[in-house]
């Protein structure tokens, strides 16, 4: 089959691919503990799900406005104002999309193209690279290291800057490393972007999953940031709403209008019932905070159990993540992780190798699963690595 050059750079999602293989093996009757997918194995909170169901029952199922229903755009603006120190609180800056993935795609596609370079600190969520490449721009990896807990520095960015650098995509708390950037670091990065005319895209999808007792900082905690900042977030992770497909971008209205115009020619809008569910999830403050609090409590327990189990595996180095949903472990002998992840799948546990994240030699384990799945999965990892 001959495809257009548009998709020469297309790589299918490695994370979704591994999860699909785990599902297929399970359908064949194999016992697989799935720690691969980037999604919480929990139910959507009832108050949010019911709002979606009510929208369907009441017939609110027509085309929604392209940038999102007013209720949700207002709820998002208020949510950001309630949970960060310096949010603009302006619904006109918000575009709702089918997940952060689409919101990011729309913004990247509208801002970057041939001749442009976009910096991506790695290890990073693999979709950043592919989305930037699909826009015709060049993704430029900025490698960060275990020794600096994977926090990118201005010096590292400066080392990869050229006169074509137009964007920087950051993700704190990080998938896959769990790295959290302090407000000071975010402030330095924002100032560096401002100095060099670089758009800063801050993917904060894991921000509320913090285990230190204090929230992970947002780019909207930085008071004197430049205009050229886009915050991306959604309901997939903190509300276990991956299948509802709701994410958003908050940025300068000109960019948001253009990104929504692009959306008007692709999906038209995110699904209406999902938007009503997300409006409840983000807009009902007391229920929202109770749901996130309960979820963080479960994840914190899993995080400790997972860390404890992996720390006892001699073949691995592991750190306790401060935030997010993943344990990120380094293979001590430095071998590539892709064959190890394949072997682990055969041994009945699905996890992700580091290669798609730009970090061969590492393994990523999702700990937002049932405790039994986590414990059994990591016991299988220990047994396999003892013998392999
Ligand atoms: C860093 C990061 N950003 C965005 C997403 C996608 O989120 P959504 O479900 O809102 O498209 C993921 C999902 O794994 C992620 O890990």
- The total of helices stands at 12
Low-confidence stretches: none
- Find the count of extended strands (DSSP E, 2+ residues): 13
- What would CATH call the class of the largest domain? Alpha Beta
What hetero molecules are bound to the protein chains? pyridoxal-5'-phosphate
Q: Can you give the mean pLDDT?
A: 96
> How many discrete structural domains?
2
Q: Which percent band covers the strand fraction?
A: 5-15%
Return the CATH topology of the largest domain. Aspartate Aminotransferase, domain 2
- Give the strand line-up of the largest sheet: 2-8-7-6-5-3-4
Shape: globular
In angstroms, what separates the terminal alpha carbons? 40 Å
Helix content: 40-55%
Biggest pleated-sheet summary: 7 strands, mixed
As a whole number of angstroms, the C-alpha radius of gyration is: 20 Å
SSE ordering: HEHHEHEHEHEHEEEHHHEEHEEEH
CATH superfamily of the largest domain: Type I PLP-dependent aspartate aminotransferase-like (Major domain)
Specify the CATH architecture of the largest domain.
3-Layer(aba) Sandwich
Commentary on this structure:
There is one protein chain. This protein is of the alpha/beta class and 388 residues long. The protein folds into two domains: 5-44 and 288-387, Aspartate Aminotransferase, domain 1 (Alpha-Beta Complex), CATH 3.90.1150; 46-284, Type I PLP-dependent aspartate aminotransferase-like (Major domain) (Aspartate Aminotransferase, domain 2). The protein contains twelve helices and 13 strands. The strands form three sheets. Strands 2-8-7-6-5-3-4 form a seven-stranded mixed sheet, with helices on both faces. Strands 9-10-13-12 form a four-stranded antiparallel sheet. Strand 9 and strand 10 form a beta hairpin. The protein is globular. The mean pLDDT is 96. The structure holds pyridoxal-5'-phosphate. Pyridoxal-5'-phosphate is lined by residues 38, 99-101, 125, 171, 175, 203, 205, 234, 236, 242, 247.
